[in-house]
């Protein structure tokens, strides 16, 4: 007997069926996420939004990309800390025209940037050429602001403190002053460096009435600063594939990448996470 001709599905029908299947899976996931949200409380809202965006609203920057390893590491950290508060660092290394201040977010646009830290001064006399403009723009767009001084280890601590105070006028709602120390002195002992850092902190603390935040790399902190600045908020940079910046120290901020791809910025930036809620971060700001 002659065989009946086999009816082949058209390409359009196949795509239509696949699309219906995709939509069905998405709707099922939405229901599961909604049930999870109601069952666990709204403190997981950010995490649920992040994972939904990862699967169904993927954002790829037109110009910027990272290695597969770095992208996976950053994604994991954002997912683990999605219920915390995220921010970025900016300085004159970022061009004005590369930043759209009204649309800054990460995690496939699911997590808004809530704070921005700006380099204000460096050493005895230098200041960042974009600081004043970025400082005002951050306030205009209702971001919590922070200003940091890049400490030059062989220069004078008093002059460096005065340089910061002359250029930075912190206001209510701003983060406490931030001291960025990364370098080892060439013409001083490590003991003298610690003495000088404490002089800078004392001068600035007396001016603003708040202990400065100490920013440094994890290994620098472990090798030179640990135990010397008890009671100071701690900001650690660690770009390794680790679950937190330090396995044993209490930390307030973690700068987890220098290769951050942020929606609204056309260049890579440092990305930070504050280890708490937005309400908790606001409690840290100046009264």
Can you describe this structure?
With 287 residues, the chain is of the alpha/beta class. The protein folds into 2 domains: 14-58; 66-284, Glycosidases (TIM Barrel, Alpha-Beta Barrel). The protein contains 8 helices and 11 strands. The chain has helices at residues 11-40, 45-56, 68-80, 131-140, 157-167, 190-208, 218-225, 278-284, and strands spanning 85-90, 105-106, 111-112, 115-122, 126-127, 144-150, 178-180, 213-217, 234-237, 253-260, 269-274. An 8-stranded mixed barrel has the order 1-4-6-7-8-9-10-11, surrounded by 5 helices. Helix 5 runs parallel beside helix 6. Residues 37-42 have low confidence and may be disordered.
Q: Keywords for this structure?
A:
two-stranded antiparallel sheet; single chain; 287 residues; 2 domains; 11 strands; 38% helix; alpha/beta
Roughly what percent helix?
A: 25-40%
Low-confidence stretches: 37-42
The count of strands amounts to 11
CATH topology of the largest domain: TIM Barrel
| Annotated CATH homologous superfamily of the largest domain | Glycosidases
* The CATH architecture of the largest domain: Alpha-Beta Barrel
- Give the C-alpha Rg: 24 Å
As for the number of domains, it is 2
Gross morphology is globular
- Give the spatial strand order of the biggest sheet: 1-4-6-7-8-9-10-11
Largest sheet at a glance?
8 strands, mixed, barrel
């Amino acid at each position: 007997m002659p065989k009946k001709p086999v009816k082949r599905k058209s390409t359009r029908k196949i795509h239509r069926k696949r699309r219906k299947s995709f939509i069905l899976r998405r709707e099922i996931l939405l229901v599961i996420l909604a049930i999870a949200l109601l069952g666990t409380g709204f403190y997981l809202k950010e995490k649920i939004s992040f994972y939904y965006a990862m699967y169904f609203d993927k954002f790829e920057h037109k110009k910027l990309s990272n290695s597969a390893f770095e992208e996976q590491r950053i994604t994991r950290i954002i997912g683990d800390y999605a219920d915390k508060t995220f921010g970025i660092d900016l300085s004159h290394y970022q061009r004005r025209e590369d930043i759209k201040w009204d649309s800054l977010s990460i995690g496939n646009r699911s997590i808004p940037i809530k704070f921005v830290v700006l380099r204000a001064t460096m050493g005895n006399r230098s200041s960042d050429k974009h600081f004043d403009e970025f400082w005002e723009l951050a306030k205009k767009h209702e971001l919590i602001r922070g200003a940091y001084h890049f400490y030059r280890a062989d220069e004078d601590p008093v002059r460096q403190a005065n340089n910061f105070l002359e250029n930075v006028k912190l206001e209510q709602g701003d983060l406490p002053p931030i001291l960025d120390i990364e370098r080892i002195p060439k013409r001083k002992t490590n003991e003298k460096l610690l003495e000088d850092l404490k002089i800078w902190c004392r001068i600035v603390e007396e001016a603003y009435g708040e202990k400065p935040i100490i920013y440094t790399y994890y290994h620098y902190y472990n090798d030179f600063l640990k135990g010397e600045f008890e009671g100071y908020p701690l900001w650690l940079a660690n770009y390794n594939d680790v679950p937190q910046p330090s396995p044993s120290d209490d930390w307030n901020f973690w700068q987890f990448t220098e290769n951050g791809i942020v929606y609204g910025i056309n260049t890579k930036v440092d990305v930070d996470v504050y280890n708490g809620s937005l309400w908790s971060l606001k409690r840290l700001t100046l009264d």
